[in-house]
Amino acid sequence: MKKRVVVALGHRALGTTLPDQKLAVNSSAVILADLVEEGAELIITHSNAPQVGMIHTAMNEYAKAHETYGAPMSVCSAMSQGYIGYDIQNALRAELLKRGVYRPVCTIITQVMVDPYDDAFTEPVKVIGRLLSKEEAEQEEKHGNYVTEVEGGYRRIVAAPKPQGIIEIDSIKALSDQGQVVIACGGGGIPVLAQGVELHGASAVIEKDYASGRMAELLNADALMILTSVEHVCVGYNTDQEVPLEHISVEDAQQYINSGQFEPNTMLPKIEAGVSFLEKGNGRKVIITSIDKALEGYLGKTGTIIE
């Protein structure tokens, strides 16, 4: 029986440089193709932190050298979605064809609506771009951007608002309904604000896991699979009391959240996104495991499963 599955790929699935990414997505395509052959109707999303950072740095270095305008975060995000999607869709298409499976694979440049009054805009946390000098940092602040002092200089920081809606969700659903593998909401999507009939990019990034959970909700997916660097989520992580979680309920997950068991910028968004997805529908499942264990996790043989 076919199941609609939103799969979120972490950094490990993509690499951090252009050559690394090419190799990494070829390996990831084998794993994704296994899921397709097992009957999963895949909608794929992915991280983009190293990639969008490289693009942001490159575009702003070009602007500095040629005394022209730099690229806003929304444009950098769109560019990262395009080139990461390009590599994933070609690698997965080739892997499926090798197996005699004809399944179109496409990438949708995806915009995600955010709330202009989200508290995240006054408390930016996501570090981007290259190391800045004191003078460059002051210039960024004059342009209305935020910076933070780090070892050796300064870095720009941007907000990470929660996703509200996905502009292209009807297109994603239509393509998935037609049997295509869809790559969407890359890097959490391009954060946008509505101004009348127009959409304007926000100076922000969206946490990929929250966007994945929101997309799974809106698509009424059967499962949300978050592929990361560990086979199991653990409580008491990095302590003598570390315990891997295997099969837990939504109530268990919420209790662990409330007791502060998960790191805010790593595992917490994954668990919170999973709980939100499960609370908004019946018969759903969340699987969190390492990418090399994806098929076993999908079959319920390993990983942390919440339902």
Quickly describe the structure.
This protein has about 300 residues and is α/β, with parallel strands linked by helices. The chain is about 40% helix and about 25% strand. The longest helix is centred in the first third of the chain and has 26 residues, at about 75-100.
Walk me through the structure.
- This protein is an alpha/beta fold and 307 residues long.
- Helix content is 39%, strand content 25%.
- The protein contains 9 helices and 17 strands.
- It has an 8-stranded mixed sheet, sandwiched between helices.
- Helix 2 crosses helix 3.
- The chain starts with a strand and ends with a strand.
- 42% of the residues are buried.
- The mean pLDDT is 92.
